[in-house]
Amino acid sequence: MSDDIREVELSPAVKASDYFNEDLAPTQVSERTWGTGNIAALWVGMAICVPTYTLGGVLTSYFGLSVMEALFTILLANVVVLIPLTLNAFPGTKFGIPFPVVLRSSFGIVGSNIPCLIRGFVACGWFGIQTMFGGLAIHLFLSSISDGWAALGGIGEVIGFFAFGALNVYIVIKGSESIKWLETLAAPLLLIVGIGLIWWASDKVSVTEVLATPANRPEDAGFFSYFFAGLTAMVGFWATLSLNIPDFSRYAKSQKAQVKGQIIGLPLTMFLFAALGVLLTSASTTLVGETVSDPVTLIGHIDSPFFVAIAMLLIIVATLSTNTAANVVSPTNDFQNIAPKYINHTRGVLLTGLVGVLLMSWELLKKLGLIESDVSVESMYSNWLLGYSSLLGPIAGIMIVDYFFIRKQELDVAALYTSSTLYPKVNWAGFIAFLVPVAVTLLAVTADVFTWYYNYGWFTGSISGAVIYYVAANKLLLGAQSHVGNLAKAS
């Protein structure tokens, strides 16, 4: 593994380009302070969150898997997603450039905005979902110490939502070092949350019985179709980060640090916290008299204000560490990429917060009693995972092929910030490789043909996108070289 780390100095002319601002500029070697431990802590901080806790329940309820099958699926999915995560992190670490700038190579200087916005809007949606959980934790924390606040009900949850969202925005505006500090602080605290929940439920649930829970699919149904649909959805959980991982790897000290940190921090953390969610959801009937699928609501049922207050503080830290890193950093950079001279880091963060609020407005209005809706957050993101993985898969495949096979791990960084012939405004090879898988996916959904292509969306999309891009990019590259040769002969 090469630890070839480049420090790129850009000329004043490049910095004056419409496609450059200081927040999207390559990080210097002195700014690359994240070691293996920091990268691992980043993943522990992002993986221990409310949606991870509910993954086992999503797989057993919506995808017809048994508990053991669900846990195996989660572990395998996170091993699989390590491949695009570590590979797409390479250019960020080598050249110090963020995700939108890496995308300019495969989609074009201006064309990169399309995949950026696709990635950015799904992050804004996740920001809203996580902020809802964080706001609920704030509401329950204040309710545990104040009966007056508890009487606010849904209004208190909405106030908590905006308070938690503002805290996220503040931390990300402060910059990468504040995120690094938060993740390093959060990792051990989040492990304490898991240990505490296990201790609380240890004498109230039989692990053997929970693991023996059978699948709820039809008895004559085959295993593999359910398994691969679930695997696709679980890969889709971090398919977002497999694209914008350069936003973090640009701060890594070396390629070894980013690869080892991700291997140490991601798969086992996801597996253990999802397993904890399965056990506690099964135990919730005994613990509180009803089935509760998220830890915030479950802890809120405990008849101990002190324990609830402490647990909610830790849940707030857990959700904060996930939300800031996974759901605010990427859209902040993505929005900047649209107009770098007009949208800086701070404005990008504020735009992310605004879009996140708008996407969750239906849930906020429901909590205020202004509308009625049967749509649950859990069903929303379980469907979202499968659908969006179909869009994100091709982008991941295109990025990997472009960097490793077309560019041979070499990028002209200065040219990525200017309009040049080396990186055109629109790279049609990237759009062909993206739009063909998307078109097949839409056909599968609307015409009920090639349904397997949609059901296994991330895998089919990433593989087909990679193959199509390799062919299209080579043809366009050969065509461009032939055109240059003809011009040379004519002159």
UniProtKB/TrEMBL annotation:
<keyword id="KW-0472">Membrane</keyword>
<feature type="transmembrane region" description="Helical">
    <location>
        <begin position="121"/>
        <end position="142"/>
    </location>
</feature>
<dbReference type="InterPro" id="IPR001248">
    <property type="entry name" value="Pur-cyt_permease"/>
</dbReference>
<protein>
    <submittedName>
        <fullName>Nitrate reductase</fullName>
    </submittedName>
</protein>
<feature type="transmembrane region" description="Helical">
    <location>
        <begin position="453"/>
        <end position="472"/>
    </location>
</feature>
<feature type="transmembrane region" description="Helical">
    <location>
        <begin position="40"/>
        <end position="63"/>
    </location>
</feature>
<keyword id="KW-1133">Transmembrane helix</keyword>
<comment type="similarity">
    <text>Belongs to the purine-cytosine permease (2.A.39) family.</text>
</comment>
<dbReference type="GO" id="GO:0005886">
    <property type="term" value="C:plasma membrane"/>
</dbReference>
<feature type="transmembrane region" description="Helical">
    <location>
        <begin position="185"/>
        <end position="202"/>
    </location>
</feature>
<feature type="transmembrane region" description="Helical">
    <location>
        <begin position="264"/>
        <end position="286"/>
    </location>
</feature>
<feature type="transmembrane region" description="Helical">
    <location>
        <begin position="148"/>
        <end position="173"/>
    </location>
</feature>
<feature type="transmembrane region" description="Helical">
    <location>
        <begin position="385"/>
        <end position="405"/>
    </location>
</feature>
<keyword id="KW-0812">Transmembrane</keyword>
<dbReference type="GO" id="GO:0015205">
    <property type="term" value="F:nucleobase transmembrane transporter activity"/>
</dbReference>
<feature type="transmembrane region" description="Helical">
    <location>
        <begin position="306"/>
        <end position="328"/>
    </location>
</feature>
<feature type="transmembrane region" description="Helical">
    <location>
        <begin position="222"/>
        <end position="243"/>
    </location>
</feature>
<dbReference type="InterPro" id="IPR045225">
    <property type="entry name" value="Uracil/uridine/allantoin_perm"/>
</dbReference>
<feature type="transmembrane region" description="Helical">
    <location>
        <begin position="348"/>
        <end position="365"/>
    </location>
</feature>
<feature type="transmembrane region" description="Helical">
    <location>
        <begin position="70"/>
        <end position="90"/>
    </location>
</feature>
<dbReference type="Pfam" id="PF02133">
    <property type="entry name" value="Transp_cyt_pur"/>
</dbReference>
<feature type="transmembrane region" description="Helical">
    <location>
        <begin position="96"/>
        <end position="114"/>
    </location>
</feature>
<feature type="transmembrane region" description="Helical">
    <location>
        <begin position="426"/>
        <end position="447"/>
    </location>
</feature>
